[in-house]
Structures are given as structure tokens and as C-alpha cells.
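Exercise 7. Predict the joint structure of the components listed below.
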Amino acid sequence: MAVPLLSLIVFTPAVGAAALMFIRNDDVVRWMALAVTILDFALCIAMLGGFDTSTHEMQFTETHPWVPALGITYALGVDGISALFVFLTALLGWICVLASWVAIDRKVKEFMVSLLAMQALMLGVFCALDLFLFYVFWEAMLIPMYVIIGVWGGDGRVYAAFKFFLYTLAGSLMFLIGVIVLYFHGGETFDIRTLMAQHLPFQVQSWLFFAFLIAFAVKVPMVPVHTWLPDAHVQAPTAGSIILAAVLLKMGAYGFLRFSLPMLPEATVHYSTLMLVLSAVAIVYGGLLALAQDDLKKLVAYSSISHMGLVTLGIFTLNLRGLEGGILQMFNHGVTTGALFLSVGLIYERTHTRSIADYGGLMKAAPVYTAFLALFALSSMALPGTNSFVGELLVLSGAFAANLAVGAAAVLGALLGAAYLLGMYRKVALGPASIGMRFKIRDVNAREMAAILPLAVFVLWIGLYPKPFLEIIDASVKHLLTQVQGKGGAQ
Amino acid sequence: MTAAALFQSILASLPEIVVVTGACILLILGQLVRKGQQHFLVWASVAVVLIAALGTLMLAGEVRPAYSGMFVADRFAVFFKVVFYLVTVLTFLLSRKYAEIEGIGSSEYFVLLLLALSGMMIMASATDLLSIYVGLELTVLCTYVLTGFLRQQQRSNEAALKYVILGGVSTGIFLYGVSLIYGLTGTTQLDRMAAAVTGDQLDPGLLLAVVFIVAGLVFKVGAVPFHMWVPDVYEGAPTTITAFMSVGPKAAGFAVILRVFLNPLVAASNVWIIVAVIAAVTMALGSFVALVQDNFKRLLAYSSIAHAGFAMFGVAAGGADGVASVMLYLLIYAFMNLGIFGIVIMMRNGDFSGEVIEHYAGFAKSHRGLALLMLLYLFSLAGIPPTAGFFAKFYVLVALVERGFVMLAVIAVLLSAVAAYFYIRIVMVIYMREPEGAFDPALTPAVRATLAFTAAGTIGIGLFPAWFLRLAQHAAIGG
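Solution:
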């Protein structure tokens, strides 16, 4: 590979962040951050343009020795699954910059630096082909995210930032031990491709499965380690919430797909029922909690827990439809929940309240805005024609094939979703204009439109024509399935 | 001893001779320097260390045993000496302005630091329990005095007295262990001891002797249960001396511990169990007690106890990787800890003591660059990648898992999650609070250089650990 495309994608935001440190003018900082993220997005499109969907092999690979004495390499590469998330991350990069344009009015430079650093690290996580490198990216994300929540967050930001940091750190450290154990069992290498080809004894697989589970379950988050999420989401600034919901939560599920399933197939099959049950609990529990929320952000946060439950449910059905649905749903959740947080952020900038009770009749004051809100709410509850419908249908059909009771729980979750989302929309958009009487609410402006429209396009695109997205992941998912079933025995 | 052997011995110990001679010359010159000319002393001291460093590196090519097996200049010693030079030079640079502010800039200050350096160097090279004792005493006697250098302050005097008494007791215990060893084996030389034991290696007498020696050494690195002096001494001593003690003599203590533990006699006595328990308890105590500290120096004292515990895990792991992991850990710790101490020292200016964590509130608002450096050091101390602190911990964990001590590794990481809390709490204070007053750090060029250098090490070793790792691995196998 002549051009190290993935390195460019990963390090463009990092270089941008470093360059931003030397700029004093806030407006220049904003425009430059936008330019960097758009450039990164363009590079990402170029990567997808050259992506070969017919193979499950890692593409655009780069390998350089890093710490030879311990077999650590700097290795990047993408397969269908990671390519999809690299794209999602790059897409949300510039949307986050736009979302923070006026919302962040102090320490703009520091914020943009953190945001760009965050983006570089997230892209690194999805591209890493070396476990050590993966861990470095994975863990280093804590630093900018801690700062983003803690400095620019709401009133309870310090508590939320601490909670986020400590939960994730404690989870990751067990993962680190797992990684080192894997290193010695897998022939003293951190290379992910080599480790996937190893066959470990069941005993070791089981231990590793749980060590990894702790780390990934915290990130997803799965019940009962989800309690950091509502705090972090509610306190984080809009861009922080978008990143958290759209990308960070995906990393847990990505971890299952990249490590647990292919490297620990027997343990995965053995404990899949446990995972299905945990996922079902998350779906229903998250949905019930969302139903009871008055805070808009909290509602979306709890709905995230429910929807991510659907993702892990799809993954651990361990059949083709479930897996493809789960992965597509990861992408969908990124787009839809990102869009919902963006919408909440937009209205919060105008009214400075997130309490649903304060709203009403918004449709008359801001018709364009409410139209978008309706679209994303409908997408979140998986109405046919929107993106989540495709993903959820695949997951459900996979779930019913795997376990009837769990499938039923997932359907219940979908019903709950309809209840809290429609309820939220009714109270906010319809009825007498409570808040519109007191405030003059401005509708969506051009900058906000530029941020929100692309997400709406993806909602409808995947809803109506999901084929290109499924094609990207298809070969990789099929290969993943043979890895699980080949070694783990057919389920 | 023939003339040739004497020459060889002198050659092997040339760096030590340079440092001691330099210290003596400075002691005399110091009386001739006029007031206001003290910066001359700083540069002269730095020059002495640099000459010694040059000598060490030029002689590093081969193993040089000296003084009838009491002393050796091998790669292991060279690695530690480089750490000591680094620590000492950075301490000199940090001391320049601080000593002026505190009014302790007399020549003895620098001379005692140089003598402490020579003691640490002897510790790193010593291969006989008696030469270890000489190095140990030389180091601690100097640090006793330096601890009490703030003569006008009660807590400085109290700290020094406490340190002397407890240090004396620990030295006594150490010597008692040495005498037992001599009685049982007829030698105090590390590599002859094992051969001298013919019978049961788990002789209770021997075990007792080993435990006594371990106890004496554990005191010097500030590990539980001999850690009580650390917080008081660290808080009472001049901050520059605290910075020095937290990395220099501690690293020297670990050098001796490693040498003693590499010894087959000790290795056979299952002493690793004791070490593992000490490591876990030390780390737990340091991490948990640090959670409730308001005083920056005290917090760093408990933090240094916790780090000593983590390094102890590397000793417990043993083997080539275990030893190398401890060495790398100490090198990295020197960078990040001197960095954070550099900040605390710099903040001591005018009425600002720089010791209360709350007083740093909102520091990031007015001093972006310095706050970013603090963030870097603190996250490195917490062990978050991509900083060097992460790699240091990572390698210790690798060494533990390699030997099958997975449970110890789990304990180590869980405790380091606890420790992370108090580091990021400081980050919270400097970034997420509003400032209450203006800050006026004493930012001299020397301090700037120190901070730049330690920051470069903290991030540089984190991103490119390969070279440093190889260095530690080569040094660990002796040779």
C-alpha cells in the first residue's frame, strides 16, 4: 500500500488538534476544526471507495514494528465491520463540530482540541489490528472524554465525569489483564489476526470471556453496569452526548465482535444464553426507565440502553440475520440517537430547559425542527421506511430463531419504545403552545440544517435501500460466523 | 592487592570518585563564593554530575568487578546510575530558584545532594552486604540533614528527627540480618552466600536473616509496614528534597533489593510470597490513604508509596522480565514524578505555598500550558495511555502474567484504578473550578527546561518505549 490511508484517517484529526493549539482566534479555531473533520470525512469516503466488499480479509493494512521486544506492532486495517464504524465516526466528527459552533462559547480552542483528539482515538480503535495498539487508543479516549464532560458539561458535570472515568477505567483494566493473558496463550503476539487463528482451551476462553465482558459491558452499557450513562449523557455538552451515544457505546459491541466472538468462540457459544438474557433485560429495563423520564436527554439516554440491548441481542443470537441486524442497528443507533441528542441540544440552546413538562405546541413555533424531531423519533421506534426498521427486523427474526422468550422481550422493548417516543413527541410538539407563548423560538438555521440534514438522509436511505450498507459488512459477518461456528460448534 | 588490581578498582569506581571529590571541592569553594553568586554552585554541581555521567558511559562497555568482590560496575549499575544522574541534575535545576525563595541556598545543600548521589551510586554497584550498608548509610545520612534544611520550620525539624530515629532502627535491623547471614554462611558477599549453604536452604535462621534484610531495605523504599515515616518526611522536607527522595534513594533501594533478590539463596527461600504481600498491602495503603489528602506533598507521598507497591509487584514476579520491568518502572517514574514535583516547586512563590490542592483551583484558566503539563504528568501517574506511566505498569503486568501470577496482576490493576481517582481529582480541581486568585509561578528558565525535559520523557517513552525497554532488558541480565 503506497499511501497509508488509514494512518492518514486516524492522524489527520490528531495533527489538526496539535495545530489548533497555536491559534488564538475562536472563529478561526471553529473553521479549522470543521475543515479538518471534513477532510477526514473525505479521506474516509476515499477509503470506502476503494473498499472491496467481496472479501472478509483486512484491507488497507499497514504493519510496522513498534515494540519488537514484546511483539507489539503498529498495525492498522479494516474489514467490513470496522469500515462501517470508521465511516460513522468520521461522519459524526464534523456534525459534532457544527453542533458545538455556538453551544460552546468558552475555551473554544480547548474544546475543539479535545473533540479532534477524541475523533483520532476513536478512529484508531476501529482501525487497530494490534491488541496493544487497540488498548492504547481505547484507554486514551478517557482523557479527552473526561475533560469534555467535566469542563463543558452541565451543573453536575464533575460527578458525571468522575463516574464515567472510573467505571470505564475499572472495566478496561480487567480487559488489559485479559489481553496480557491472551498474549501469553496466543504465542506472545498482540496481532489480532494471529490471535483469531489460535485455539485456546475452554477454561482459558471462559476466563477471558468474562474479563472482556466486564470491559465491553461497561462501554455498551449493559445492565447492571449502565448507571454511568444517564449521568454522563445528561451532563455532557451536546457534542459530547453525540460522541458518547453514537460512537463510544458502539465500541463495547465492536469489542464483542472483534475479540469475544472470533477469539473465544466456544465460550461465546457457551455463554450466549446468558448474554441474550442480559440483553433482553437491558431492552425492557431501559425502555421502562425511559418511559418514566421527564428530562429529554435522560429519556434518550435510557432509550440508548434499550437499543444497545437490541444490538447485543442481535450479536449473541449468533446467526446471520441477528448479527447483520445487530451491526446495522449499531450504525442506525449511531445515526438516530446522535440525531436525537443533536435535536435536544438545538432546542436546549433556545429554551435552556430539558424538562418535557416545559414544552408543548412546538410545532407552531418551529415547524421544520419538529418535522426533524418526528422523523428521528419515528426512526428510533423503528417505523417501516426508516433505518431502524431494517435493523430491528433482522435482529428480531434472528432472536426468534435463537430463543423465543428473548424474542418476545425484544418485541416488548419495541412497544415500549413506541410508547415513550410518541409520548415525548406529543408533549413537546403537539398540544397548546406552552413555551411558545413565553419565548420566541427560532426555527432551524442553515448551520444547524447542515448538521441535521445528513443524519436525516441516512435515516431514510438505510430505511428504503439498506443494500449498500449490508453489502459492506456481509462478507465479514459471514466469515465471523464461520469462526464462531467452526470452532465453537453449531448452535 | 596488586597495583594493577588497584588501578582496575579505581577505574571501575571512577564515577563515584569524581562525585565525592567534586563534593569535597565544592564544600571548600562554597565558603569562598560571595552572596548573590550562588548560581555558580548550581552549575558547578551540575558539571560534576555530568563529568561522572560521562565517565560512567565511557566505562559502560564491560563488567568491572572491583575491591575484591565488594563492588561491580556492570550494565545493571549503569542503568541505575543514569537514573540517579538524571534525578540529581533535575533536582539541582529545580533547586536554584526554590532555594533562593526558601533561603536555603548555601553550599552545603548542593554538597549533601552530591554525597547522597555518591551513596546511591555505591548502592547500585554494591555486591556485598557491607558495601551495600556503606552506600545505604551515606545516602540516608545526607537525606536526614537535607530533610531538616528548613531550619526555621517546626515540621521540617520534626520530619528530620523522625526520619533519623526510624532510619536508625531500620539500619539496625538490616545490620542484624547481615550479622546472621555472616554467622550462618561465613561471608557477606552476595554471590558467595548461596554456595556457602550446603544444608537445608529453608533453615529458619537463614529465613530470619533474609526477613531482617528485607525489612531494612523495605524501609528505604517506603513500603508497608515500614512506610510511616514517608508522609511526614515528604511533607516536612524542602519540596526539592522531597522530589529527590521520592525517586533517587527509592530507586537505589530497589537496585539493592533486586541485587539481593536475584541472589539464588534468597530466591530459593520463597521470599517472593512476602514480597507479593508487601506489594499488595503497600499499594492498597498508598492508594486508599491518598484519596483523602488535601496537601499536595502528602498526597504525592502516598502516591509514591503506591508506586513503590506497584514496582514491588515486579520484584515479586522476578525473572529477567520482572527485573527489567522494575527498572523501566523506576526510570519512567523518575520522569513523571519529577515533573509533577517540578510544578509544585515552581508554585512556591511569595505567599503561595503550592501545597494545598484546593489552591490550584482554576489553574488551567490562566496557565494553559502548565495546566496541560500537569494533566500529562497526572494521567501518566494514573497509568493512562499513551503516557509512559501506562507502559511502565503494562510491563510489570506482563512480567506478572508471564510467571503465572494472574491474581497478583488483577490486584495490581484494581488498586491502580483506585489510585487513578486521586490523580484525576487534581485534574478536576485545575480544570473544572473557577480560580480564586491570581497565580504567580516562579517560572525560571531552569524550571522550564526541567518541565520540558520531564514532559518529553513522559510522553516520549509512552509513544516509543521500544528503545528504553531494550535498555532495561539488557541491563536486567547484568553482564
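Discussion. Chain B touches chain A through 33 residues (CB under 8 Å).
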